[in-house]
């Protein structure tokens, strides 16, 4: 029984088939293996003649012929043949006819699988000939790499038979390319994982014109096909949950080390103080290695704690991140005379309670000696500043402390001293950087989801994330939601209030109990309002409208989003397409008639409409809103917010993100 079967699909490439089969035949492997050539209905007689010649010359070479159905179908035919002919075969290697194995490819690949029993496949480093290029992919791979950059895993990989025994096959409808990327997404969704073994070796032929080059020209179309095949994996909540789990966005630089986090409530100690300078240097030499988060935060711990108590730490960080991206990579949370602090020398514009800086900008200062002090002064002078957003008469304002600049200077001095003592790390290999670094990942997610800065809230295993988008007219929606959640609310739901308007404008005595975090949304000024419905004008923001970019980022990633602000109704369909359940809350009083009519225009993008009385429900039903989608809130009816919890009433919740990630 062979340990490995090498599957080689071929179509119109007899001149390359000689090389691929010859490379497979000369393997150093000491255990039995077989070669399966799949002639995908090639019209060239040379292909059939060469296949038969190899089979006659070597009993280890098998040739099958199929009608022409494309690369995926040919691979699947080879897989089916190998598994039926050798049921106990340990692994299959997918080798394209225009590529070549190196002499020890199978030996090293099998050794890697033996050493890592948890690995389901092993893929090689990207080394190409013809048009010379090599890409470095031997880095810790996360699910986001698979979803957003999966083509880095070469199809020519050694895959355990258990992957195919689970029913996974190549998508035969994807004939234009990226069928291997789609296969890796399938494998990830099913819980399988791969590793890179650079020494395994593969000679990848890179030609000016090929299927790969043609796929690159159709990349937007093919990527959209991947999204449509795996909507739960590309949902904003899944992508942001995976970012939180594998690529924390921020790093708080403290006295004892660096804490990594995206949500401060779920943080981990990532880098000890004595290792911070080395991690910074490595992030410069090997940015794709993920040594540090893309943003560094300098702040007094009491400032962070005060903002956390005020339920504002996440919204503050998001505002700082947005200003950082718009500016020079530096932004400070300014404390001015309004907060009891007089501006001091060296702190133009006010003391800074926090400084958020892009990691690569901080690294620039470390490597900028002997002019680093001048560069720091210039950076601080040009640094953007935003003020803290606090509810009226917040007691936590007094707890905000200056000193962020002093903390930054101390860290800078430590890193400079370490840099002076030893030579900076260098990129040790000659391959080109292929995978994204932390900053690239943030920008990739912003582009994929369509907003910036993106939500930075926890996607927990046992709590759904509910976004409440309300203004002064619709704050009663908060009470309605608390009633729906009932006694299970704090255990099963995390409430995030996005207030349209300043938090300082919240009514005196507003009941914010049960709210885990607060944010404020500054809606763009109304445009020309060229669209009308039943005579009522409204805006319909374009997907790339920069004025709405921050709003879209703030609304991203919720399991359910409840909106009580009519100007945001045009974004309902976008939220829904990104995986969120969409609910409109219509208060009993406070809405003018024209907002009620606008609501009807977006019924198609609304999963549910919550009203306060049966009379109002009857009114909307009479105007054409489906009665089945209208609800008067009942105490404890949490399934209205999260229908998937209907079967969970009275039982423990399961891991929603885990289900989304595994596709079950």
UniProtKB/TrEMBL annotation:
<feature type="domain" description="Glycosyltransferase 2-like">
    <location>
        <begin position="6"/>
        <end position="123"/>
    </location>
</feature>
<dbReference type="InterPro" id="IPR029044">
    <property type="entry name" value="Nucleotide-diphossugar_trans"/>
</dbReference>
<dbReference type="InterPro" id="IPR001173">
    <property type="entry name" value="Glyco_trans_2-like"/>
</dbReference>
<dbReference type="Pfam" id="PF00535">
    <property type="entry name" value="Glycos_transf_2"/>
</dbReference>
<protein>
    <recommendedName>
        <fullName>Glycosyltransferase 2-like domain-containing protein</fullName>
    </recommendedName>
</protein>
<dbReference type="GO" id="GO:0044010">
    <property type="term" value="P:single-species biofilm formation"/>
</dbReference>
<dbReference type="InterPro" id="IPR050834">
    <property type="entry name" value="Glycosyltransf_2"/>
</dbReference>
